[in-house]
Design brief:
Number of strands: 2
Strand order of the largest sheet: 1-2
Structural class: mainly alpha
Low-confidence stretches: none
Helix content: 55-70%
Distance between the termini: 96 Å
Oligomer: single chain
Mean pLDDT: 86
Strand content: under 5%
Largest sheet: 2 strands, antiparallel
Radius of gyration: 32 Å
Number of helices: 23
């Protein structure tokens, strides 16, 4: 078909005086998307054409005043469902469910877009689309400026509610990744969740962490870095404890860069400070979070020691790192130590500073007990530390051990028993 003929058909398709029959003929006479979109937008388009066009050009059909006419064809279940999704998303989900209509249905893509385009879209319905809908449908809907602004408005208004969040954590991360809400607005939304109350998929969780870590690496200002620490700490605190395993999951692309331990250590310090300022219930809720973060720090550090065959200076550097980030007491409290009980490691540890030895002993890196034998390197380290403390303080709670058992062992942990 020549360009002149196409232009004539386009003008005719746009003309609201064009009859329904003429529009039908135009629809079937060409496959031009421009012309077919014009037909789908024309109020005189027949219900049959609109029903067909809805699968291809949903935006134009739903914006067409003539869309009301297709209700006459409610004998078609698909048309009925599309109308209900567009007119009242909340009632639609109550009637048909969430996963069965959006996540599992072949028509989920179109239904998701219809709901997002609805003038009656609510935060609850939006969350259902984000949690169960197909992401390509969301991306396509957000290209519509009006839909984008409406979704953004709903999230911003919902963030003013201090009682609870209308949105799942995963839904907020999806909106943030698509720049519907800013990082500052995401932080505000996260403040609506209670401690240890929620979680997200591995992919959402890991993608967000990698994103924050990347921004942290590039951020130059101390204020900017501190904000990112607060953001990630809040993210950790509202998450259930099991999701911390994602930080170690190599299959999900979590970066182990030079800034990894720095960021995690700062988050640990932030969470520790929050738990100390709150009541006992909050401390108990955040107990698992601190334990897992300490475990993460030790796990990554131990991997690094093994790869590089770390020396005494590396042990001193690790102690200095924990001291700089003010997490020594927290690390010792959670006693998630690395296993440096081998002879090759003990030889290197004997060359470290007194403070480093004390830190490694109290954090469980040398184990909880040792046989009382001068030939045992661990006992010699324990005894050296213990004698030094005794010389300065006498009998005090800071002693690593105060007596030997019948089995001639010393224990620096109450969980060790001799039979």
């Amino acid at each position: 078909m020549k360009k002149q003929q196409l232009d004539e058909l386009l003008n005719e398709a746009r003309d609201e005086s064009t009859t329904s029959q003429q529009l039908t003929n135009i629809w079937y006479s060409t496959k031009s998307s421009r012309i077919r979109k014009a037909v789908a937008s024309n109020p005189n388009a027949s219900p049959v054409v609109l029903r067909t066009a809805a699968r291809l050009y949903l935006d134009e059909v739903l914006s067409n005043p003539g869309f009301e006419l297709i209700k006459l064809f409610d004998s078609d279940p698909w048309i009925t469902k599309l109308c209900e999704a567009y007119e009242n998303p909340n009632e639609f989900f109550v009637k048909y469910g969430k996963y069965s209509t959006l996540g599992h249905s072949m028509d989920g893509n179109i239904l998701t877009r219809a709901i997002l385009m609805s003038k009656n879209l609510t935060p609850e319905a939006l969350n259902c689309c984000l949690a169960y809908g197909q992401k390509p449908a969301l991306d396509r809907a957000l290209k519509n400026k009006q839909v984008f602004e409406n979704v953004r408005f709903l999230v911003k208004e919902s963030s003013k509610n201090n009682s609870y969040s209308y949105f799942d954590l995963g839904s907020l991360l999806i909106l943030h990744s698509r720049k519907v809400i800013s990082t500052e607005e995401l932080h505000s939304c996260l403040s609506q969740f209670g401690f240890a109350s929620t979680s997200a998929s591995k992919r959402c969780y890991s993608d967000f962490y990698v994103k924050v870590l990347g921004e942290y690496q590039q951020e130059q200002s101390p204020q900017g870095q501190e904000f990112l620490v607060n953001l990630l700490s809040r993210f950790f605190m509202i998450s259930r404890g099991h999701v911390f395993s994602f930080l170690r999951d190599k299959d999900y692309g979590v970066i182990s860069s030079d800034n990894f331990l720095d960021l995690v250590a700062r988050c640990l310090k932030h969470i520790t400070d929050v738990s100390y300022k709150r009541n006992r219930e909050v401390k108990n809720l955040l107990h698992e979070h601190k334990k897992r973060l300490v475990g993460t720090i030790f796990s990554k550090t131990y991997d690094k020691f093994i790869r590089n065959n770390g020396g005494s200076e590396d042990f001193d550097a690790f102690f200095a790192f924990c001291k700089e980030h003010e997490i020594i007491d927290t690390v010792i409290d959670y006693n998630r130590g690395m296993n440096f009980r081998g002879k090759q490691w003990l030889e290197k540890i004997k060359q470290t500073s007194f403070d480093t030895k004390m830190f490694l002993a109290k954090s469980g890196c040398l184990g909880d007990w040792a046989p009382v034998m001068d030939s045992d390197d661990r006992y010699r380290i324990f005894n050296e530390l213990n004698e030094s403390i005794y010389a300065k303080e006498g009998v005090s709670k800071n002693l690593l051990f105060s007596s030997c058992s019948l089995r001639k062992i010393v224990s620096i942990n109450d969980s060790t028993y001799a039979f």
